[in-house]
Design brief:
The complex is a heterodimer of chains A (351) and B (333).
Chain A (H helix, E strand, L loop, with lengths): L20 E16 L4 E17 L3 E5 L6 H8 L7 E6 L2 E2 L5 H7 L3 E4 L13 H11 L5 H14 L16 H13 L5 E5 L7 H18 L2 E6 L2 H7 L2 E6 L2 E7 H6 L4 H9 L39 H5 L5 E2 L6 E2 L7 H8 L2
Parallel strand pairs in A: 3-8, 3-9, 6-7, 7-8
Antiparallel strand pairs in A: 1-2, 1-4, 4-5, 9-10, 10-12, 11-12
Chain B lengths: L13 H4 L24 H10 L2 H18 L1 H4 L39 H37 L1 H16 L2 H13 L6 H27 L3 H8 L4 H12 L1 H24 L12 H8 L8 H29 L7
The chains are: A alpha/beta (351), B mainly alpha (333).
């Protein structure tokens, strides 16, 4: 365990004091069983999320980045208990929602919402928009049809669609419009916390900024707290206050968005940043190239999970797993034995 | 949607609903968002796609004809009566004739001179009813089992699918033959019995198919979205998963409908199903004709056989057409 069991205090990445904390994720794990053999018994676990801890303040946007398959989406779903966590606690507004019964969880659902990545598969093709958005309202006890429709109309308008569109079906909308419908569905329940699971990665670049700005506006207007999951670094930098970098089910680095982007302390973050394109064709730089593929989460490497691909790995990285600690005392957490050498690595790639 | 003519009225202009001064590029829509056309209802879409399917259209036409014929049987023929008195015909069966139109256009049987047309029209009632109700009940049971199994998964799925396996491994037709001969005491069994047996042994295939569809649908994001807003599992199945698995359900239904009609005919043909007299079916009409084919009485076998074959074919075509029409993902053009 990289983090001690009793994690109240600064033992895990936290900004500010507990009073401002809206949601805190403690030692969250999500394993998927691998079934095999004649009797389909469990032969191994896919450790999609393996012991991550962080907290998010009220009104904050926490970005979660990492490459495909690193467990960021799984983490988002496990936090909402859409996929039941294998272990760990999720404290929302001071209450541990992992202990909630299904009926308690049902009423909690309106507070915790999600915006999905794929605007095509996230809207039921056989339902009109009014039903897609209204369904949650029915489930949360808005019985009167008139009341529901006025709520739906309000949020459709707010996300930039005409209220009359509620009679239409999803196939009549473009990707950007569909994503707005998905946002309206989440907002209609008046949530406090929204997991945005790659909300713009399936959209055209021209639409991405519109939707991002819409999300920012809505955050202001409705006092939302976001967990923003993405693999696009500039997008995350633009929208997030703090950012967590995940690698193979673990958090590699957590910090203020600005500090993390300007001064990465983990070699994986440095490599990711050096791979992000700069919108200036005259700038030339050397990328920090990672060799090999992401190891399998069924059988992750010993010690530091990144050591198999790390350009600055030493023998100790193979043996000892680095804890996620605040080495600089500025709320910038990193899980690396040699975080002081990452600066040189970054410098070497910039000339 | 390419078949629609976009008219200017269908492009709603935001300039009319928002004054220019309030324009903010963020919350208002760009060009990409203006392309939605006047909506068609779901039914209109289904009908458009169904119409593209020529054979399904022909099949529908034929089925409408057969069903009307079955309903109107008493208007078409005087009934299945020994009506030889009306004709001054010699002993034995008679080929198609326009005499006493339309009663004898498909000829008559021997001895009692039953009109083959009457046997076919009244027979259609029983044959279609048994096929339709067996298919309906077995698909309902199969869909319920498959839906619960596929949606909940885990141990529920395991138990239900093992039971399904047992039903799938039972050799259906030999069992039906033995059951009928034991319980029918040589005098045949009623339509209700056949429908019950068909339902009990016919649902397993459908439940397998529907389970597979549900396994894939429950992983889709809209199912997750419904869960995330607190919709209960039963409602998710009814509102989200069933409407989107309508196409395999309809295909299962048409396959079952067609095959139950042939199974029932086969059972009657063996003399183990519905007996005539009193109840005519296509199967027992064929059975009573078998001895006379050698005499050259082709009409007695040909016409009931023709109706049986064309009906099964028509149902299959309709199934094909419906599968394409009900698939929300398929495009019109």
């Amino acid at each position: 365990m990289s983090v001690t069991e009793n994690t109240i205090g600064a033992a895990y990445p936290q900004a500010g004091n507990d009073v401002n904390t809206l949601i805190s994720v403690q030692n969250l794990k999500k394993y998927y069983p691998v079934l095999g053999g004649v009797f389909r018994s469990k032969v191994a676990d896919v450790k999609a999320v393996d012991d991550i801890s962080f907290s998010i303040n009220k009104g904050e946007t926490f970005g979660l980045v990492g490459e495909s398959g690193c467990g960021k989406s799984t983490a988002g779903r496990a936090i909402l208990r859409l996929h039941e966590p294998t272990a760990g606690k999720i404290i929302f507004n001071g209450a541990d929602i992992t202990k909630y019964s299904p009926s308690q969880m049902k009423s909690m659902r309106s507070k915790l919402q999600i915006i999905f990545q794929d605007p095509y598969s996230s809207l039921n093709p056989s339902m009109p928009i009014s039903d897609i958005i209204g369904e949650g309202l029915i489930a949360q006890g808005v019985r009167s049809r008139k009341e529901r429709e006025s709520i739906i109309a309000f949020y459709l308008k707010r996300v930039g669609l005409q209220p009359e569109y509620m009679r239409r079906f999803p196939h009549e909308f473009s990707g950007g419009q569909r994503q707005r419908i998905g946002i309206a569905r989440a907002l209609a329940l008046k949530p406090a916390f929204v997991v945005a699971d790659e909300p713009v990665s399936a959209l055209d670049v021209s639409i991405q900024s519109q939707v991002l700005n819409l999300l920012k506006e809505l955050q202001q207007e409705f006092n939302l707290t976001y967990l923003f999951i993405a693999h696009n670094l500039p997008v995350v930098e633009y929208i997030s206050d703090r950012v967590g970098v995940m690698y193979l089910g673990k958090l590699a680095e957590v910090g203020e968005s600005k500090t993390l982007y300007n001064m990465p302390l983990h070699p994986y973050t440095a490599a990711l940043l050096s791979a992000a394109p700069i919108p200036d064709p005259t700038v030339r730089r050397k990328r920090i190239l990672l060799t090999g593929d992401v190891p399998s989460p069924i059988n992750p490497p010993s010690g530091c999970r990144f050591h198999t691909r790390c350009p600055i790995a030493q023998p100790i990285c193979k043996e000892q797993e680095p804890a996620l600690v605040d080495k600089t005392g500025t709320g910038h957490y990193v899980a690396c034995h040699f975080s002081d050498r990452v600066g040189e690595l970054v410098a070497s790639s910039q000339n | 949607m390419a078949t629609q003519n976009p008219s200017s009225a269908q492009f709603e202009d935001f300039g009319q609903t928002n004054s220019p001064g309030t324009y903010t590029p963020v919350t208002l829509l760009g060009n990409e968002d203006r392309l939605a056309l006047k909506p068609l209802t779901q039914l209109e879409l289904y009908w458009r796609r169904f119409r593209k399917h020529r054979f399904a259209q022909i099949g529908t036409g034929f089925m409408v004809f057969v069903i009307l014929m079955a309903i109107a049987a008493p208007l078409i023929t005087p009934g299945i009566t020994a009506s030889s008195m009306n004709l001054t015909l010699s002993f034995g069966s008679h080929g198609p004739t326009l005499k006493n139109f339309p009663d004898y256009i498909f000829g008559t049987t021997d001895e009692l001179h039953y009109s083959v047309l009457a046997l076919i029209t009244y027979g259609a009632r029983t044959s279609l009813m048994i096929g339709f109700l067996s298919a309906l009940f077995s698909v309902i049971v199969g869909t319920m089992v498959g839906a619960i199994s596929g949606y909940f998964g885990g141990i529920v799925d395991n138990i239900m699918m093992r039971i399904t396996d047992i039903f799938l491994t039972i050799p259906f037709f030999p069992l039906l033959v033995s059951l009928s001969s034991i319980l029918g005491h040589g005098s045949g069994v009623g339509p209700a019995f056949i429908i019950t047996v068909f339902t009990i042994f016919g649902w397993a295939g459908t439940s397998r198919v529907i389970r597979g569809v549900f396994l894939s649908l429950r992983e889709l994001e809209y199912t997750e979205a419904a869960k995330s807003v607190g919709v209960n599992p039963f409602r998710i199945i009814i509102r989200h998963l069933l409407p989107n698995s309508i196409s395999p359900i309809v295909v299962s239904f048409t396959l079952a409908f067609a095959s139950f009609i042939t199974f029932e005919a086969a059972l009657d043909f063996l003399g183990l199903g519905v007996m005539f007299p009193p109840t005519a079916t296509w199967g027992n009409t064929l059975a009573s004709a078998q001895g006379d084919i050698a005499n050259g009485d082709w009409w007695w076998t040909f016409f009931p056989g023709l109706f049986l074959t064309l009906t099964v074919l028509a149902i299959s075509f309709i199934g094909d057409g419906l599968r394409d029409a009900l698939d929300v993902r398929s495009k019109i053009d």
